[in-house]
Design goal:
Layout lengths: L3 H13 L1 H18 L10 E5 L3 E2 L18 E2 L4 E6 L19 E4 H4 L2 E6 L3 E2 L2 E2 L5 E5 L7 E3 L9 E3 L7 E2 L14 E5 L6 E6 L8 E7 L4 E6 L4 E6 L4 E6 H5 L39 E7 L2 E6 L4 E6 L11 E5 L7 E7 L5 E6 L19 E4 L18 E3 L10 E8 L1 E2 L5 E2 L6 E6 L9 H5 L8 E6 L14 E4 L13 E6 L12 E2 L2 E2 L19 E10 L2 E9 L8 E6 L5 E3 L10 E6 L6 E9 L1 H5 L7 E8 L8
Antiparallel strand pairs: 1-4, 1-33, 2-3, 4-5, 6-9, 7-8, 9-13, 10-11, 10-12, 13-14, 15-16, 16-17, 17-18, 19-20, 20-21, 21-22, 23-24, 24-25, 25-26, 27-30, 28-29, 30-31, 31-32, 34-36, 35-42, 36-37, 37-40, 38-41, 39-40, 41-42
């Protein structure tokens, strides 16, 4: 806890900068109003969330003697908690410099309160693709919890409270209560007009807020993690809550772990147990079931659990519902056991993870997270899978240097992929997901490098680092191969931590599919060859329930969902192309409960490829000699999109 003197300096410092901040906010808001007449989101637009800042109301009138200015400092509801940046032109090659962008579109704390998670939809309006998505933001406690009681000393300001007490309410600007919001609110910002509305309310959330939000464009639905209950909520495209997935109860047993139900703890700001500086009193669900990040990808929802982070996933069925197939993916290998608060995937099959330090809430607003040790890392699948390792993902991730301070681990918990940039720092929308953007604190603050950094702008940058994806450690240490964007354009606060939140980029990949993103294709009814049925007079033993197509680094992948309706007991397939010039291969092994996977090469997008399948029991094959095999030919209508990069 900082000393009272330190808190005093911080509070006065913020108040002293109000004139400049107000001028800056006026200029930005004027631009935002003009942007609303057309649209606010374009390909490459970068949305960032963060704390809106503080103000001492009527500070010019002075404070009575003996009054601590910190007690009279409140959330500044007129400043932004969400900004949409134009980062299409970074002004030159990366050299570790601060980039000055055009004034961003802003949404203020008065409108939506403090938010962390953001996502986009697909831009479909009234059933018609528009190419302009809407933006969604989830209420958050990750930028602190502030409570007040009514004004008692007639100074025109409510009374700040550290502990729960009768009559306490959330401070204005905390959850957008002025617009009817609360800790379970997900806000919608129209991508064309900038209009703001309440999209959904998770009424069971008492204060911890929303961990993350993700959009599934295949089924046009959303997923939101709830830090109060640990549930992942599934919502329709109009915001209606459909159902939930409970990792603690339904997920953990799939990996041999005991189920953990929610303990029912809630945030009670009127109860004596609530302490605004102790997150353990805020009603978070237990760590073992606390879901932070969620990301829909390749027919599954990937999610992170706990401070000692693990990554899990659960399938999404054809009707959009949660499948009964939760799967442990990996235990995160990082120096510190910090929560993973964001997950992203690129078109090459890499999975990117961002850590955020433990939740803090200093009374003087200086610190919301223990920063300086959070990592940004990426994993990729083993190819082929190593049966000696528990996970299908590589054991050791690659790490990105984040910020210039010692250790280069300044992650604030948000990341996403961006298009590529050319040598002059101009956005190249023809190159998909070749750049990593990630949030961080004190990104350019390193006294030993101050002389080198001085030419690139201010040092106290809390915002976003922009880095080409190949630059993993030891490359780019220190990160002079990156660009930097400040969240609020205010550079006089080097001591704050955790004031920046999430970042998301609108980066539709025109003309080809992303790797591991489901792409539209189909299949025709199968037919059986002349030598069917096999000896033993077995009846037709398999039906095709579904086929899903994905792009992978090897090319087109088809996941076959087969049903052994006759009880033949098959557990393996052999696949062979029946279309000249086309290659079809299948893995040597098949995991129970998963679809059968085949790779297709040499075809033209949109072609129908005949695939011959032999469905058999591995135990029969292992005996040697003849073994029964149910045969069929499956005509696959391949997607009309090339997987070539």
């Amino acid at each position: 806890m900082p000393s009272p003197r330190g808190g005093l300096r911080h509070s006065l410092h913020l108040a002293g900068g109000l004139l400049a901040l107000a001028l800056s906010a006026t200029l930005w808001l004027g631009t935002a109003a003009r942007a609303q007449e057309t649209q606010i989101i374009y390909p490459g637009s970068m949305t960032v969330t963060g704390f809106s800042g503080t103000v001492i109301p009527n500070f010019d009138e002075g404070l009575p003697p003996g009054v601590d200015p910190v007690d009279e400092t409140f959330i500044d509801t007129t400043r932004a908690t969400l900004r949409v940046f134009d980062v299409s032109a970074l002004g030159g090659p990366a050299s570790g410099q601060l980039v000055y962008t055009p004034p961003p579109f802003e949404v203020t704390a008065e409108q939506i309160g403090q938010v962390f998670a953001v996502t986009y939809d697909d831009g479909v309006r009234d059933g018609v693709p528009s190419g302009i998505p809407n933006l969604y933001a989830g209420a958050s406690s990750l930028h602190g919890i502030r409570i007040v009681t009514p004004d008692e000393d007639s100074d025109g300001r409510p009374e700040r409270q550290r502990r729960g007490t009768a009559g306490a309410v959330f401070m204005d600007g905390q959850f957008g209560t002025e617009n009817g919001g609360g800790p379970g609110t997900i806000w919608k910002i129209d991508g064309v007009t900038g209009a703001i509305s309440r999209f959904a309310d998770i009424d069971t959330n008492s204060g911890p807020g929303i961990g993350d939000v993700s959009f599934d464009s295949n089924h046009r639905e959303f997923f939101a993690s709830d830090l109060d209950t640990g549930l992942i909520h599934r919502l329709e495209a109009n915001g209606t809550l459909i159902d939930t997935f409970d990792h603690g109860v339904a997920g953990r047993p799939a990996h041999g772990l005991a189920p953990v139900a929610d303990d029912g703890a809630v945030m009670d700001i009127q109860g004596a147990a609530f302490d605004s500086e102790d997150p353990d009193t805020w009603g978070y669900t237990q760590d073992e079931r606390r879901v932070w990040a969620v990301a829909y990808h390749g027919g599954r929802v990937y999610y992170s659990v706990g401070e000692k982070a693990e990554i899990w996933s659960v399938g999404i069925a054809r009707d959009g519902s949660f499948a009964d197939d939760p799967r442990w993916e990996l235990a995160v290998k990082a120096d510190k056991d910090y929560a993973v608060t964001d997950i992203a995937f690129d078109v090459k099959g890499f999975m990117y993870l961002a850590q955020r330090g433990p939740v803090e809430n200093r009374y003087d607003y200086s610190q919301f997270a223990d920063s300086g040790k959070g990592e940004a890392i990426r994993y990729w699948r083993e190819n082929p899978d190593d049966p000696a390792t528990e996970s299908e993902w590589v054991e050791e991730p690659q790490e990105y240097p984040v910020g210039f301070p010692q250790g280069n681990r300044q992650s604030a918990g948000g990341l996403d992929l961006q298009y590529g940039y050319d040598a002059d720092g101009n956005l190249d929308t023809g190159v998909c997901t070749d750049t990593l953007v990630n949030t961080g604190d004190k990104l350019r603050d390193n006294p030993t490098l101050a002389d080198q950094l001085a030419a690139g702008g201010p040092l106290a940058v809390h915002g976003v680092q922009i880095t080409p994806t190949p630059l993993v450690k030891p490359a780019n240490v220190p990160p002079f191969g990156s660009w930097f964007v400040d969240f609020d354009g205010y550079f006089e606060d080097p001591e704050v931590e955790g004031h920046v939140g999430d970042v998301e980029v609108w980066h539709p990949c025109e003309g080809r599919a992303g790797y591991y993103e489901e792409i539209p294709g189909g299949y025709l009814p199968p037919f059986y060859p002349p030598d069917f049925p096999p000896p033993g007079d077995l009846p037709p033993c398999i039906d095709v329930e579904d086929v899903q197509f994905y792009c992978t680094p090897r090319g087109l992948q088809a996941d076959l969902y087969l049903h052994d309706h006759a009880g033949f007991g098959g557990d393996s397939i052999k696949a062979q192309s029946r279309t000249p010039g086309v290659g079809v291969t299948s893995p040597q092994s098949h995991a129970p409960g998963k679809p059968y996977t085949i790779d297709i090469t040499g075809h033209y997008p949109g072609d129908t490829v005949d695939v011959g399948l032999c469905f058999y029991r591995q135990s029969d094959k292992d005996k040697g000699g003849y073994y029964p095999c149910c045969k069929m030919t499956l005509p696959l209508r391949t997607p009309a999109v090339s997987c070539e990069r």
